[in-house]
Design goal:
Layout lengths: L1 H12 L3 E5 L5 E3 L2 E2 L6 H7 L7 E5 L7 E5 L4 H7 L4 H7 L5 E4 L3 H9 L4 E3 L6 H17 L9 E3 L5 H6 L3 H24 L6 H14 L4 E2 L4 E4 L20 E5 L2 E3 L2 E2 L3 E5 L6 H19 L7 H19 L6 H7 L25 E2 L2 E2 L7 E4 L2 E3 L14 E3 L2 E4 L6 E2 L8 H10 L2
Parallel strand pairs: 1-7, 5-6, 7-8
Antiparallel strand pairs: 1-4, 2-3, 4-5, 9-12, 10-11, 11-14, 12-13, 15-16, 17-20, 18-19, 20-21
The structure holds glycine and manganese (II) ion (2 copies).
Length: 431
């Protein structure tokens, strides 16, 4: 699978060389490191999860197409940090045509950049690796007098690699379905666990237990569990409030499995029953989301989807008396952003906000089968909003992960209940 991806990328790239460094190790505090997670581009092309590695793909070398620079075997270090593939493993297990110790990068990288016109490398992502890359280019430049050709273009892999990542293959969709199934179990467990008198983090712990028990590497992003007015804070992450009777709990959480993200939001009442005001807003967000999901078909764009979601919400807010005026004008003036201030969709894949261009030639890109995107409208009414007090402090988002197919949209997270009666039935059973 990884070799096939490299082949496809090499033919999409044309003559040139791609350089992708592994994700750097990040220090958390003093000598403690953050849990390591490989760079998505690197993993997509290699399946190799060790730090201090560099991948070179080239169709300008007589023998090597795939070259890996890796940490060498080191019995003493391996006692502390675990086994390493080493140079031999990089060839025998990971399919490199050649592999070298990472310590030889400075001396060998120039050879791979010599007599090449175009290098695919993401400048600015990892400044310390930029320095090593520039140093290698400098070495090639110094050889120019002896007749070596020097690269004249450094191009962003977005145009090639990220276009491949944007369209998911069968095995990627399988991983995303498995991630969705675990995320379903976690959201169901959260619905059963949440109640007045416990903290948001206690529900988060329950979800993390399900993620890890199923073998997920990690949550795909920091889970958001916002109860009461915290549901109106878009990137709330403290998750430390004691929940009260009458609260809604907004949970935006998904696991990462096989390096693929799921990204799901559900919002439910911790006491088991939506209040009348909560239910009115909930129904509106759900109507908006359903209308938007229906548009996840080939030829439509994320802009089309956002427009429909926005229109349903703005019209509904007028009907409920939260906004006043002509719907078109409210939208064109941006007045609706008082309550719906984010976009409706983003690409989803190895990164929760996945790679791939949103616009092509200046216009929103049409969907094609294999695209995976979220649909996540919401309404957030601040607790000091200028409206009837009964609406204040209500925050609701509903988010699913949608695969575009030749036919109808495939909702990968459809099994996570969101119809309000169904949600209430689950809440009732566990109370
Ligand atoms: N959980 C991040 C997002 O919904 O975009
Ligand atoms: Mn989300
Ligand atoms: Mn999202």
């Amino acid at each position: 699978m990884f070799a096939e991806r490299r082949e496809r990328l090499l033919s999409a790239m044309g003559a040139g060389v791609l350089v992708v460094p592994a994700a750097p190790v990040a220090i958390r505090n003093n000598d403690v490191e953050h849990a390591y997670r490989q760079d998505s581009d690197f993993f997509y092309l290699t399946g190799f999860d060790e730090p201090e590695s560099v991948l070179i793909l080239t169709n300008q070398h007589p023998e090597h197409q795939t070259v890996l620079f890796v940490r060498t075997r080191n019995p003493e270090r391996e006692i502390w940090d675990g086994p390493r593939a080493g140079v031999d493993g990089a060839v025998s297990k990971f399919g490199a045509d050649a592999a070298f110790p990472i310590d030889e990068l400075a001396s060998r990288l120039p050879d791979y950049l010599a007599d090449v016109d175009r290098v695919h490398y993401r400048l600015g992502r990892d400044r310390s690796f930029d320095d090593r890359f520039f140093a290698a280019l400098d070495v090639v430049r110094r050889r120019a007098r002896l007749g070596t050709r020097v690269p004249t273009e450094v191009v962003d892999p977005a145009a090639t690699l990220h276009e491949l990542r944007l369209v998911k293959g069968d095995e990627e969709v399988e991983s995303m379905k498995r991630a969705a199934a675990v995320t379903r179990d976690a959201h169901l467990a959260a619905m059963r666990a949440a109640r007045p008198g416990i903290h948001e983090f206690e529900v988060e712990a329950e979800m993390n237990r399900i993620f890890r028990k199923a073998g997920c590497e990690r949550p795909a992003y920091d889970s958001i569990l916002g109860s009461g007015r915290n549901a109106t804070i878009l990137h709330y992450r403290k998750n430390d409030r004691l929940m009260e009777d009458g609260d809604l709990l907004l949970i935006d959480a998904g696991c990462e499995l096989d390096y693929y993200a799921s990204d799901v939001t559900r919002t439910f009442p911790v006491n088991g029953k939506y209040s009348e005001a909560q239910r009115a807003i909930y129904d509106l967000v759900l109507d908006s989301q359903r209308a938007a999901i229906a548009l996840c078909v080939p030829g439509k764009t994320l802009d089309d989807i956002h427009q429909v979601a926005t229109r349903v919400i703005a019209a509904g807010l007028v009907e409920l008396g939260l906004l006043e005026g002509d719907v078109d004008t409210l939208i064109s003036d941006g007045t609706h952003k008082a309550y719906y201030m984010h976009r409706t969709s983003h690409w989803l894949g190895m990164d929760v906000h996945d790679v791939g261009a949103y616009f092509v030639d200046g216009v929103p890109r049409p969907l094609v089968p294999g695209h995976v995107l979220t649909v996540e409208p919401g309404i957030y009414i601040a607790d000091d909003a200028d409206c009837d007090p009964r609406w204040r402090g209500i925050g609701i988002r509903i988010e699913d992960d949608i695969l575009v197919t030749e036919g109808a949209p495939l909702n990968l997270t459809a099994e996570i209940p969101k119809a309000p009666d169904e949600v209430e039935a689950i809440l009732r059973e566990s109370r």
